[in-house]
Write a structure and sequence with these properties.
Order of helices and strands of chain C: HEHEHEHHEEHHHEHHEEHHEHHH
Structural class of chain C: alpha/beta
Largest interface: B-C, 59 and 66 residues
Oligomer: heterotrimer
Strand content of chain B: under 5%
Low-confidence stretches of chain C: 17-26
CATH topology of the largest domain in chain C: D-Maltodextrin-Binding Protein, domain 2
CATH superfamily of the largest domain in chain C: Periplasmic binding protein-like II
Distance between the termini of chain B: 16 Å
Distance between the termini of chain C: 57 Å
Number of domains of chain C: 2
CATH class of the largest domain in chain C: Alpha Beta
Low-confidence stretches of chain B: 1-7, 537-542
Number of helices of chain B: 24
Helix content of chain C: 40-55%
Structural class of chain B: mainly alpha
Chains: A alpha/beta (213), B mainly alpha (542), C alpha/beta (344)
CATH architecture of the largest domain in chain C: 3-Layer(aba) Sandwich
CATH topology of chain B: MetI-like fold
């Protein structure tokens, strides 16, 4: 298996387990949907995968690399995991180009330019390269955030509630676009949603979380 | 803000923990002196002086709290709810008294009220042969209240505008029964801000040494210096310091106790307040009231100083004075940058992890402002002498002829003390802007494989720039005005403008003191102007 | 980021550099003075000394307490060669703390009367100030005045002002009384004096004169030095006060007027002892003493030098006949009984 979570225990507050012995496996190249109510810990799973949260116990493995177990805990910046946040978190003080540049630290300018060009082409927003985030629509911001993550060439891409901030009438259209982009990028992807329709439309695999109580 | 669980050593945690340990050691070191048996001097102090110190301190903080609270609250209320001529101007110049250090106001006013001063002369010229004595505890109360009320003003004003929509919802009621609304809504809602502001005023009052020394008001900061220097007894100074800390502790927790579990801040979107138009008589009344506050707290003493300066202008054009100005600006800049830097480190540390250790670090590093300068000075000095004794072998290794007191005789000691004292202030402004920006950008940067340091410089700092500038300016103003710490901990022959003003005044040369004092006031005024007038947020954050 | 780092490193270096230069000792031909006096006159004299001898004078200025504390903490490390303080009591304190050393110099013996020197030759007086009665001639007739002790008379009730008891000049005044009259009598004196205060002590010496001018009191106990300063103030109204009020030297028929001195002592760990001695000798010379007298309204200690005209206009006076070491001996006792008898 490509992405593995084994027996994860997690709590924000002492003695209140959000995830109790939780396990998960996802195949390479699949799009997986995590579905559940609020409080079910579905976003927490993404945060654990990306390294923003540290579980009490368990094991996190991506692409045969151990990211977390009882001995090892790799910091988020050292993991090859991309994440698109619920409200995209585009850096407001940087242009679209600089936002994508940010994740390409260490590459030459030519390499960076090429990657920026490629990912913007992928999300079909090449003409917005010099705009600032606040000049973009919600859907455009999402695609830029996606492009920014893809640019770093992650092993797995995490999307936190990708449709919650969008107009209902745009939703269908965006779902379709998103699926196209992900498939085209040929990347393993996990996204979180509370809407079963989202999951049915896009995912190859649906994981239903029940709130543990 | 949800705290995150990233455990591992990094720049933030290392710097934070080191700072906390250093501060902790300095304070513990000093208070271990309490365990030594009391000296004869202590019995002397206890029998003859302690009661007076307690009484005076209590009177001073009680009435200063009352008067500064009144001035600050009223002016904030008026500026927020009424529309009148010059409102915009008033809303920022009401902060100006902060640019005038209390001790300078004390020097100038006592001169103006002395027999040869302008007030007494004017009174005599109109046939009133009355002498107003301001060098007394009541004089000190007035001086502190009028120079420090802006702390209350600023906090209450921002609290009033934050809770504005609640007032708007109650606008109808406001028309019907203004008094009821005032006591039932306005006052309770702004109470934390009012108490917070008054607390700051009182901490500054307890910290002051210049005013009470000059006026001969025997309160604790005076007593600490007195027993240390005049009676030559450090352990008694430490005992007195411990009593002050108890008073401070009670003050700091008083509001929490009174407030109990009630919550006074409602998280509602701010809407602009519709200000009430006032009729002409009321307008004149308002303007007169605000003008008096500003004139007493700033206008009158500054004008007098300008007159003095004209008579003695040579003083500040001497070569020595230029060195002093350079000294002052250098040390203030350095201490300020360091303070703000450390506060950024600690806040980053605390927002990325949440453990008992983090909370302890936060608490330790933010107690400085509550500790009066005299107490910090004593502890830092003892601490540095000990450290130098400890490091002496190493100094010897580096330089065979090395002296023992390397750090104690350097600026490091003063800088350290400034950082301890002003870290809290920097904290508050940096933290509030971090709260506003949130943590998502930082997290996004981490998932884009950016290291903590790179994220700090490329993402966090640009986003919190506004808060950093505010923190920088507030700390800078405080450092440049600071007197007791500088007086005790500066290296030999190292004068700042503040110590020079104090020396002149102590030498009974108020005229000559005016020039350098005006430099402090000018710098602080410019900074206040900048903070209140800068454009907010160029790019759209959030 | 680079800019910020550069900025930080530049400042760090600056601070370290300033720290280091303060620690290093200067070249050979120097003398470092820790002085409480920060008058232009003193600087003028140091410059003159430098010109005449080629010995460079470094001056460190701070309050007496600070300087003594500093010397104490610095110990052997001190760069100070000479300590100058304007109170005999404080110099005695420095001596007690073993911060000074005895020196022998014939020039000094010639120039400075023996009661203005430490008994062990650890410090030498440079200038004198008398603590006198300043009165308003319209309300007090000179015939009514005689001694400090006569101020206890009930007719002076609410008519006397003086600054705080924690002030060193008052502490030394009381120390001299203990030396002359003993503790019991001195306690009675303080108690009676405090009863006749017209207000709680506040302000500095000039403020006491101004209070007399204002009618708050009729007599102020203060230093001659500040009357001189006021007479030459940049504030014209202070000049008026100085011209109106009169100076009276008390105890002329009895024990003499209390005087205090500015004095200098060579530090125990001085590395330039010879230079330090040369500097004291220079300061006690007729030439330097005249400068002190004329420019700073202090009485010269050198009997061959005349005081300034203004000071002469107040008349000659007889000073307390005690060795000023006594001021130091009784200094802390004075502080304690002043507290106990209620001199705030």
């Amino acid at each position: 298996m490509y992405v593995k979570l084994n027996n994860i225990n997690f709590e924000y507050v002492k003695n209140n387990l959000i995830l109790d012995d939780f396990s998960l496996e996802i195949k390479k190249g699949d799009i997986a949907a995590l579905i559940g109510n609020s409080g079910s810990g579905k976003s927490t799973i993404l945060r654990i995968l990306s390294g923003l949260e540290t579980p009490i116990s368990g094991e996190v493995i991506v692409n045969d690399q151990i990211l977390f177990n009882t001995k090892i805990s790799i910091n988020p910046e050292k993991r090859n995991v991309g994440m698109v946040f619920q409200d995209y978190a585009l850096f407001p003080h940087l242009s679209v180009k600089k936002n994508i540049y940010f994740g390409l630290h260490g590459k030459t300018k030519d390499e960076k330019d090429k990657i920026v060009n490629d990912v913007l082409e992928l999300v079909n927003l090449k003409h917005k390269i010099n705009n600032y985030p606040y000049e973009l629509s919600g859907g455009e911001q999402q695609r830029i955030a996606l492009a920014r993550s893809l640019a770093t060439n992650p092993d797995v891409l995490l999307l936190d509630e990708p449709f919650s901030n969008l107009d209902a009438n745009l939703k269908k259209q965006i779902r379709k676009e998103l699926k196209q982009i992900i498939k085209k990028a040929d990347i393993t992807c996990i996204f979180v949603t509370h809407d079963i329709e989202d999951a049915n439309d896009i995912a190859d695999e649906i994981i239903n979380l029940k709130k543990t109580s | 803000m949800i705290k995150k669980h990233i455990k591992s050593l990094n720049l933030f945690s290392i710097i934070s923990i080191i700072s906390a340990i250093l501060i902790m050691m300095a304070l513990i070191n000093m208070f271990s002196n309490i365990l030594s048996p009391p000296s004869d001097t202590w019995y002397h102090i206890k029998n003859y002086l302690l009661a007076e110190y307690l009484k005076n301190t209590f009177i001073l903080i009680f009435f200063t709290g009352l008067l500064s609270g009144f001035l600050g609250f009223m002016s904030a209320y008026i500026v927020t709810f009424y529309e009148f001529k010059g409102r915009k101007l008033f809303s920022w110049i009401l902060i100006l008294p902060l640019a005038l250090p209390s001790y300078i106001a004390a020097f100038i006013y006592s001169d103006m009220f002395s027999y040869t001063g302008i007030f007494s002369r004017t009174l005599r010229s109109i046939g009133i042969n009355k002498y107003i004595d301001i060098m007394s505890i009541s004089g000190a109360i007035v001086i502190f209240s009028f120079t420090l009320y802006p702390y209350v003003y600023m906090l209450v004003k921002s609290s009033l505008s934050k809770n504005s929509s609640l007032f708007i919802e109650n606008a109808k009621l406001l028309k019907a029964k203004p008094l009821r609304i005032f006591t039932k809504i306005v006052l309770p809602l702004t109470r934390p801000a009012l108490f917070g502001g008054v607390l700051l005023v009182l901490l500054e009052t307890l910290n002051d040494y210049g005013v009470v020394r000059y006026f001969g008001v025997r309160v604790f900061s005076y007593a600490i210096f007195d027993s240390w220097f005049r009676l030559g007894d450090l352990t008694s100074a430490v005992r007195l310091s411990a009593i002050v800390l108890i008073i401070v502790f009670i003050l700091v927790n008083l509001e929490k106790i009174l407030r109990g579990r009630k919550k006074y801040t409602a998280n509602v979107k701010t809407k602009p307040i519709i200000k009430k138009q006032v009729n002409r008589y009321f307008e004149i009344l308002i303007i007169a009231f605000l003008s008096i506050i500003i004139l007493v707290g700033f206008g009158i003493p500054v004008t007098q100083m300008i007159f003095n300066f004209v008579r003695t202008y040579q003083v500040i054009f001497e070569l020595e004075m230029i060195y002093i100005i350079i000294n002052t600006v250098t040390i203030s800049l350095f201490a300020t940058v360091l303070t703000v830097f450390i506060s950024v480190m600690i806040i980053n540390y605390s927002r990325l992890s949440n453990s008992k250790l983090t909370r302890a670090v936060l608490r330790i590093t933010s107690i400085g402002y509550a500790i009066p300068g005299a107490v910090i000075a004593v502890s830092v000095l003892i601490f540095f002498v000990d450290v130098d004794n400890l490091l002496y072998p190493i100094y010897k290794l580096i330089d065979g002829d090395s002296k023992k007191l390397v750090l104690t005789t350097s600026l490091a000691m003063l800088t350290f003390a400034y950082v301890i004292r002003f870290l809290t202030i920097s904290f508050n402004s940096v933290e509030s802007i971090y709260d506003k920006v949130g943590i998502k950008y930082t997290e996004a940067a981490y998932t884009l494989k950016s290291s903590k340091l790179r994220t700090l410089f490329k993402i966090d700092i640009p986003l919190i720039k506004e808060g950093l500038i505010a923190a920088f300016i507030i700390v800078f103003i405080d450092v440049i005005k600071e007197l007791p710490l500088t007086l005790i901990l500066r290296p030999t022959n190292y004068d700042t403008i503040a110590t020079r003003v104090y020396t002149y005044a102590n030498d009974e040369m108020i005229q000559e003191a005016s020039g350098p004092a005006l430099i402090i006031i000018l710098i602080c005024t410019l900074m206040i102007y900048y903070v209140t007038h800068r454009k907010r947020g160029g790019k759209n954050v959030r | 980021m680079k800019k910020i780092l550069l900025f930080l490193s530049v400042f760090t270096t600056m601070v370290i550099l300033t720290g280091c230069t303060l620690g290093t000792s200067e070249g050979d031909n120097t003398v470092t003075v820790y002085s409480e006096r920060h008058y232009d006159t003193d600087q003028l004299l140091f410059d003159q000394f430098e010109q005449e001898t080629g010995i460079k004078v470094n001056v460190v200025k701070a309050s007496a307490d600070e300087l003594i504390n500093k010397l104490e903490t610095e110990g052997e490390d001190t760069s100070a060669d000479l300590l100058i303080i304007s109170d005999a009591g404080r110099l005695h304190l420095a001596k007690e703390k073993d911060l000074l050393q005895s020196i022998s110099s014939e020039t000094l013996e010639d120039n400075i009367p023996s009661n203005y020197q430490d008994a062990d030759n650890q410090w030498f007086g440079l200038t004198k100030r008398a603590r006198v009665l300043v009165y308003h001639p319209d309300r007090v007739s000179v015939d009514e005045l005689s001694t400090y002790e006569s101020l206890l008379d009930s007719k002076w009730a609410n008519r006397i002002v003086v600054r705080s008891g924690s002030n060193i000049y008052n502490q030394s005044l009381i120390a001299s009384f203990i030396a002359i009259n003993g503790e019991e009598e001195t306690r009675t004196f303080i108690n009676g004096l405090v009863n006749n205060f017209s207000r709680d002590p506040e302000g500095n010496d000039r403020d006491q004169a101004k209070a007399v001018m204002a009618g708050i009191a009729d007599i102020a106990i203060m230093n001659t030095y500040y009357m001189g300063k006021m007479a030459n103030s940049s504030d014209p109204y202070e000049v008026e006060v100085a011209n109106k009020l009169k100076v009276f030297f008390p105890n002329q028929e009895t024990t003499g007027t209390h005087i205090n001195i500015s004095a200098a002592g060579v530090t125990k760990h001085s590395e330039n002892k010879e230079n330090a001695i040369k500097l004291i000798e220079f300061l006690s010379s007729i030439e330097a003493q005249s400068t002190f007298a004329n420019a700073n309204y202090e009485y010269p200690v050198n009997p061959n030098v005349e005081p300034a005209d203004l000071l002469k206009s107040w008349g000659d006076f007889i000073a307390q006949d005690i060795n000023l070491t006594q001021l130091g001996v009784y200094s802390s006792q004075a502080a304690i009984i002043m507290d106990e008898e209620g001199w705030k």
